[in-house]
Amino acid sequence: MLETDKNWAIPQSDFKTREAYLSQLERALPVLVKHSPLQFIQWLDSTDEQVRFVAIETLSQFSDLLGDNSSTIPEIVEKHIYQCRNAGRFRELYQLIQLWQKITGQTHELIHDANEILAFVVRHAFNDNETEAYISLAFTIAEQNGIELSFCHKKISLSSDESSSWIDYQIMVPCDEPLDKVFKMNLHLVNSAGDISKQVRQYMIVMFR
Which end of the chain has fewer CB atoms at under 10 Å, N or C? Predict the structure, then answer.
């Protein structure tokens, strides 16, 4: 069951198909944008990727209904922008930046990188679940080695040489970590990435530095 408050809920079991459920969700969410926007924004935390995209599209379409909450919502959306960036959900990142820009009327500092990376993932037919799984694997290895991820800067860019381009995702570990430990973590990541698609491993390099 998907709930927004004690008086409003859409049980997925009430619908014969997932498509019918999502369609009803699209019709119902605009009401929350107007009457309970701070509650609505919690839908961006859904574990269901399609539900998150419905929420982003709904808020973008009906952002003029935010009223007095228009000063609070951008801060919440921006938090999700950086969460998506770090998690490798690049398609969702682009949608959130577009939403933030529409609400604020400003240009987000990540829009250039987001545009480049979105074009790249579309060209190579990556989906967010694939890229997120690869990065999540790296995060798990870091935690297993006692690395506190909140202290690790994540550098993400689109890199290229004469023959190829790739997404370069660098996890900058604290400088007091031994080099041989960082090397072993990278080796562990390579050896553990067998379930990640060859396409993603070829065009996205995740590395501890």
Answer: N
Expressed as residue numbers, the domain containing 39 is 2-123
139 shares a domain with 192? yes
E strands along the chain, which residues?
Answer: 2-5, 8-10, 153-160, 165-172, 204-208
pLDDT digits (tens, 9 = 90+) for 130-157: 999 999 999 999 999 999 888 789 999 9
Boundary-marking domain end, from 63, 94, 123: 123
Q: Are residues 106 and 174 in the same domain?
A: no
The b/e string for 134-156 (b: 16+ C-beta within 10 A; e otherwise) is: bbebbbebbeeeebeeeebebeb
Helical spans, DSSP H, in 36-125: 37-40, 49-61, 73-87, 90-104, 111-123
Number of domains in the chain: 2
The model carries a pTM of: 0.79
Name 179's Cβ contacts closer than 8 Å, sequence gap at least 6: none
Q: Is residue 115 domain-shared with residue 139, that is, in the same domain?
A: no
